[in-house]
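Quick question: what would this complex look like in 3D?
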Amino acid sequence: MAEPAKSSPLNELRIALPSLPMRLQEVGRFVAANDYDATTRSMRDLAAVAGADPAAFTRLAKAIGYSGWDELRAALTEARRPSQTSPFSGRAKSRRHGPDADVALITDKLEAEAAGLPRISTHAIADAARTLHEAKRIWITGYRSCRSVAELLNYELRLFRPEQVQLVGASGPDDLDLGAFRPGEAVIVIGFLPYTHASVRVAQAAYRAGAKLIAIADSVAAPMAEGADHALLFEAASSPGFFPSLTGAIAIAQSLAAVTFSLGGAAAKKRLENTEARLAAASTYVPEKG
Amino acid sequence: MAEPAKSSPLNELRIALPSLPMRLQEVGRFVAANDYDATTRSMRDLAAVAGADPAAFTRLAKAIGYSGWDELRAALTEARRPSQTSPFSGRAKSRRHGPDADVALITDKLEAEAAGLPRISTHAIADAARTLHEAKRIWITGYRSCRSVAELLNYELRLFRPEQVQLVGASGPDDLDLGAFRPGEAVIVIGFLPYTHASVRVAQAAYRAGAKLIAIADSVAAPMAEGADHALLFEAASSPGFFPSLTGAIAIAQSLAAVTFSLGGAAAKKRLENTEARLAAASTYVPEKG
DNA sequence: TAGTTCGTGCAACAAATGTTTCATGGCCGA
DNA sequence: TCGGCCATGAAACATTTGTTGCACGAACTA
């Protein structure tokens, strides 16, 4: 009993998938991966592309609780209906109690974050990327929740500049790295209110060492942004009483990496391809099914 | 001759409309206004809704240059295919050279990400949060770039449930943790295309152990989302040639943490306050200046 | 080992689809 | 007013659709 929410037909399919016979799993995955074609093409067409028996689709539909393929397809069709883009469009925002309160809370949060993204200064990011491009070495710092942003940046930059990018504190105490800053290098510090002492120390160390400083922060008043060569600002403030939002910081980090890669030109592309080839060779990834 | 650009079937229809017989105009307008149903429902269904003769649809198709209704519908279907991820397709996207190219690139990226955020299923997040709330223990997994999301989630959840949240692989090889999954616990897996083998293994381990599985992924077709109790989907596809976007995943993670905290009520609030007090006492943060 | 169940492909089935034909009715020009 | 033309709806058509019954083979049980 207590079905876990029959929300969408794709969901039901996904949930039931592991307990299905092998061939039904195959066609089920095919439907999940090509749900648009599932709603528009005929069963036999799908079977031909998927390399399966037409009957399998009927059986699949019945296996997950529908009377037949027609009914499943109708459900998929309704789920994809474009006018349904915002099922909450009413925006009643009852906000009172019950589960709806939580939903409204998320909706508000997402909308606020979506609104904040376009406010990011793209020119500042482009300038900062140029600094990164010219840097002999790149240090990245982030503490507490900002550590996740720092690590993402570290990961993406290392994809095409593996030897020159390093996370501060990755291979020992931070203090060791702080002494290693040199002119011609770039230091990225990520942080927002309340600011950690450690991040401020990094910023100061970068300043003293004559390294370029790029601050990703929530305010020009942030201590680590003071005197930074580049200040990339995002909006962290969100629904009161909750953790600040890192969505903007992540968006900045990703854009920064993308532009830096773009500036890297053919050389960066080559490096990235090498990295990807190495990962593929190690069979890190699940092969895509044609 | 000299067709005025056969861009989209809807366009051809619109252009040819005035020169058509009255009843064909009616049907044509109906198709233009309900093109989604035109691609999914049958000709007779449409005729019933439009209050017209089924044959009119065939005649309409032939009147604007198609061999029949099937061919027109196929054209409409292709025109609506979602793989053309750019709803802004108009977008001249000068993209030429110079510094403006980079700026335009970031702007596009941010806009696309902002558009993707409201499409996240808030109900699914609320449901998943309820599962987390009831879980005796919470495991979090993410590899490669998704590790940053996993760590953010780990950080935020540990703020108010320190003893019950753990990053898979944080204290030794992953395999040790995989064997520790138990019924009544929750496992969160984050990943997108290309999927790592490791993340799929975690999902399977969770399934076998009878633990609740929450998948944060870019598609219902993601291997780790199969059979998951909750699938939270975001859009990772971004500007071609660049890394997939994690903005959506971060937004989901933050919302999940926020709602879970909200469900925790007074107890969670108390825990969070304790944690904050401890951090402040260690003078981790720079004091705010009044 | 023998018996049973279950998954799977093939082929035949009835229903539904798109198309065509035909008859009707209105319109315009002679 | 008559005759040809075209638009239109209804019905018959061949095709395609989704479905189901059946047979074969693998996996499991006793």
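Answer marked as accepted. Residues 42-44, 54-55, 57-58, 68-70 of chain A lie near DNA strand D (CB under 10 Å from a C1').
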